[in-house]
Amino acid sequence: MSLLRVENLSIQFGGVRAIQDLDFTIDPGTVHSIIGPNGAGKTTLFNLITGVYRPTTGAIYLDDQPVTGRRPNELARMGMSRTFQNLQIMMNMTALENVMVGRHLHLNRNLLACLLRLPAITRGDRTARKRCIELMERVGLGGYINAEAGAMPYGALKRLEIARALAAEPTLLLLDEPAAGLNARETKEIDEVIVAVARAGVTVVLVEHDMKLVMGISDHILVLDYGRKLAEGTPEEVRNNPAVIAAYLGNV
Ligand SMILES: Nc1ncnc2c1ncn2[C@@H]1O[C@H](COP(=O)(O)OP(=O)(O)OP(=O)(O)O)[C@@H](O)[C@H]1O
Ligand SMILES: [Mg+2]
């Protein structure tokens, strides 16, 4: 059974058909990459999957349940979590506080219980804090726990976004260009983080322009071009697909 299934999905913005008649499935426990030239519709597809946009036509199923039109917070509760192409970090908060924000789904936020500072709340906060520190260590940010986000280097902020997304304990993690703007060493660190996350059992959907990274860690690749599926398959199959080579990959 697939974890995510997309059927006949389309969205149109005025005259722009950003996604057209798209069908694909994502198996649990895999790293599934979505690649394509700028403007191919990759971020739009993430926005459709995570409920930010409602499709013009088509359907999305999570664990065989129809989820088309559900709101982002509902989908987050069902196990979807994501990072953003443009960093969505709160720069006036500490790194740990940013990760804690990703945890809010799992916190008991009954107002009265909070006001009374019931022991369960304090205990919950302590457990959440511990888990968030663990996640920061897992993405290599153990040295930044109490750092002001605004003072952190860009490469660390990209990993902070992943830690925050993981704080929601997702089953499906969508990463929109996690290596964009990173140097070779930082890209390798991100590569290791993604592999470790996948090994821990989280299904990863990766949008990325760095072909070396994509080819190295993906189980399956979907190639988009002008909102349509151009090809899909294993890295080997995609690399050797004449349509892909002709469209833009060149000599990967
Ligand atoms: N909210 C919107 N309103 C109008 N047009 C949009 C909107 N979102 C995306 N588009 C258009 O949809 C197309 C796909 O954009 P999208 O951002 O999904 O591409 P992408 O594959 O993520 O590109 P990149 O690699 O540059 O991030 C583009 O033509 C874009 O201008
Ligand atoms: Mg994009």
From TrEMBL:
Pfam families: ABC_tran (PF00005), BCA_ABC_TP_C (PF12399). One of its GO terms (molecular function) is L-valine transmembrane transporter activity. Keywords: ATP-binding, Nucleotide-binding, Transport. SUPFAM superfamilies: P-loop containing nucleoside triphosphate hydrolases. InterPro entries: AAA+_ATPase (IPR003593), ABC_AA/LPS_Transport (IPR051120), ABC_transporter-like_ATP-bd (IPR003439), BCA_ABC_TP_C (IPR032823), P-loop_NTPase (IPR027417). It comes from the Bacteria. Residues 4-251 form the ABC transporter domain. Transmembrane segments: none annotated. GO terms for cellular component: plasma membrane. This is Branched-chain amino acid transport system ATP-binding protein. The lineage of its organism: Bacteria, Pseudomonadati, Pseudomonadota, Alphaproteobacteria, Rhodospirillales. The keyword Metal-binding does not apply. One of its GO terms (biological process) is L-isoleucine import across plasma membrane.
